[in-house]
Amino acid sequence: MVANRSLWFVLCVFASESLGTSSPPKCEESEDSVCRIDYDEPLTMKYQREEVHLDAPPPKVLIWHLAKGGGATVLHMLRQALDRQAQQQMKLIVEDGFIGEQFWAPDYFRIGLAREPCSYYKSLFYEGNIIRNGFLHYAIKKTNREYLYDDVTRFSDWVEHVTATDRAHAPNVHGCGALSMRFWVATLNASAAHYVNQHWERKTADVKTWIRRYKPCPLADCAFNAPQEVLDFCQRDLAQKGQKLSQFDCWIRVESLFEDFDICMERYRQRGGTVRGYTHESKNVRNVPSCNSTVTERDRILIDRVDQQYTALFGYNGKCCSAS
């Protein structure tokens, strides 16, 4: 299930149009072959919701934290809304983590976070520009590209970099950008992240000087370091398997965070959970320039292309910077 009826409709319609399968990318006989990725790894729970008995205990809450996706606010409200036992059992998939197969079982209540792509990139840019912090900022600084964060006039150059469209050896044309790659590997295909990270380790001479947690995928310079065939497959995989994301009990979008959270808690109550009183209170909100003053028309066209499947899944078509 997703956050509201309109989004549920979008996912259902998109899924019905995307069930046709296309063949995996052609394999090449090399150690970097994209075919080393396990494209058939389990993506959804093995058990149907109908198997959950009415007298079963309340489900354990699982939340997948999308960095820059309103996680601080959602977690703050969850700590108010959930009772002590539910909080103790709650599983947080941290921003650089992956959703394992065990978390698709019927005894979990899954919550996911989402954000409109243009607004997402704007927020991610200012994390490095103003705070000089984050996985991506570390990776860009480590490769002597910190000038991409100099000022807002560099935003377009920065977007081209994190979407891999500026790569001299293999510019990304139709594959996923940073947001889609983060989303895809964390929720649907962790093996792709491991493949990209191994590919990067073999080709990075000073790899031992890097903080190990700051590997490219999912949170650092993931798209830029991914082979083109992986970026291309990301788009196709989201189109073919994106309907699996409706197995989440609810999606909370930054643009309608409080409304989506209320719906989410009502669904949790319907599944037997106890919901205490909570307040709508935003956390970790920074005063940064608006999306419209940062993202140019050229940027919008690029973002629409590299995040097209993500945009379609969550109904963000034509809504670049619409919330800011």
Automatic annotation (TrEMBL):
Keywords recorded for this protein, A-Z: Signal
Signal peptide: 1-20
Taxonomic superkingdom: Eukaryota
Annotated protein name in UniProt: Sulfotransferase domain-containing protein
UniProt organism field: Noctiluca scintillans
